[in-house]
Design brief:
Blueprint: H1 2-17, H2 21-33, H3 39-42, H4 44-60, H5 64-77, H6 81-97, H7 101-114, H8 125-137
Helix pairs in contact: 1-2, 1-4, 2-4, 4-5, 4-6, 5-6, 6-7
Length: 140
């Protein structure tokens, strides 16, 4: 139920802090399994955190299919664009890691457009990739 799902969320977060990603993923999945029907309506914030973190950790441990499944669930149920933004990033990374770079780039362009960032369509994909890599190199 709600309490057990919440405990699993906390345990998963602690496991993440200790870099035990396999355990964290297990906790998040257990937490998800205790959510009851209608959980997105009744316990939205808990559902969002469990699915978002499960997607993130699945990506970290190389389970791209599970990462995409959890991300898709959040994108389907998210109440706002902002609520889905983290999993949009995660699913874009999963696509790129799974040899889906063109799809990943298209998804990224769509997200940037929704954020109000207008990429000049006349620029080549290579120029966009180079600019993105330059911007990312300034981040830690």
């Amino acid at each position: 139920s709600f309490t057990i799902a919440t405990v699993n969320l906390r345990a998963g977060q602690k496991a993440m802090e200790m870099s035990d990603f396999e355990a964290a993923y297990s906790y998040f999945n257990h937490g998800i399994s205790f959510l009851q029907e209608g959980h997105w309506q009744e316990h939205y914030d808990l559902s969002l955190r469990l699915f978002e973190l499960a997607a993130k950790i699945a990506l970290a441990i190389g389970d791209l299919a599970s990462s995409m499944l959890h991300s898709e669930q959040v994108m389907k149920e998210a109440r706002s664009f902002e609520d889905a933004l983290n999993v949009m990033y995660i699913s874009t990374c999963a696509l790129a890691y799974s040899s889906g770079l063109p799809d990943s780039i298209q998804n990224s362009i769509g997200v940037l457009t929704n954020l109000g960032i207008d990429l000049q369509e006349s620029r080549s994909t290579e120029a966009c990739i180079q600019e993105t890599m330059t911007l990312l190199s300034t981040r830690t």
